[in-house]
Amino acid sequence: MEQSPIEKWIETNRGSDKFDEALRTLVSYACAEWFRRCTGMLLQPGEALSRAVLSGALGGSLGEWLEKPDQFCREIADFCQKIRSCPLPEQLKEGIPHLLDLRGVKCPSNAARSRLVMAGFPYDTELEIWLDDGSPIENVPGALVADGHKVVFREKKANYWAIKVVRPNNKE
């Protein structure tokens, strides 16, 4: 079977210094094109990627793949090829979700996923993140603050933590 252009690119570039970053960029542009083709919406690639990860349209797989893109090259290539012709899931047409449930996601994956989502999240908009007790609530807020985001709310729930984070628009 002949390789797709994406598979050829992966094979050629795998092992390069910025390969993981390039795969994330590839997926973000593929998501932006998916939105444009299916809805006419023109989204920045980072926002399109945030929406796709937050929606859970792929059962959470996309977030996992992007944490370790080198390990999921085949899945990423298949995803980028598939979304060129498949319809946009309904939950992606409803606007950007405002909840990221990271309960059960181990460190450091929960910090990596929250950073990925916040990097493309709309400015001055709150995202609620649910985290497990222990290392997640100790590490994720600090990682987000280090990236320049603001934690504006932190509350202990029955068996998890809820935090609200804002990506400030520092250009004002």
Describe the structure.
It is a single chain. The protein has 172 residues and is α+β, with helices and mostly antiparallel strands. It has 2 domains: 1-95, no CATH class; 98-172, 2-Layer Sandwich (Translation Initiation Factor IF3), CATH 3.30.110. The protein contains 8 helices and 4 strands. Strands 1-2-4-3 form a 4-stranded mixed sheet, covered by helices on one side. The termini are far apart.
Fold blueprint:
Layout: H1 5-13, H2 19-39, H3 45-55, H4 61-67, H5 73-82, H6 90-93, E1 99-101, H7 109-120, E2 126-131, H8 135-146, E3 150-156, E4 161-166
Parallel strand pairs: 1-2
Antiparallel strand pairs: 2-4, 3-4
Q: Count the beta strands.
A: 4
Round the Cα radius of gyration to an integer and report it. 16 Å
Average residue-wise pLDDT: 90
Roughly how much helix do the residues carry, as a percent range? Answer: 40-55%
Distance between the termini: 52 Å
| Main sheet characteristics | 4 strands, mixed
Q: Provide the low-confidence segments as ranges.
A: none
- Count the helices. How many? 8
Global morphology: globular
Any key phrases for this structure?
alpha+beta, Translation Initiation Factor IF3, four-stranded mixed sheet, 4 strands
TL;DR?
The protein has helices at residues 5-13, 19-39, 45-55, 61-67, 73-82, 90-93, 109-120, 135-146, and strands spanning 99-101, 126-131, 150-156, 161-166. With 172 residues, the chain is of the alpha+beta class.
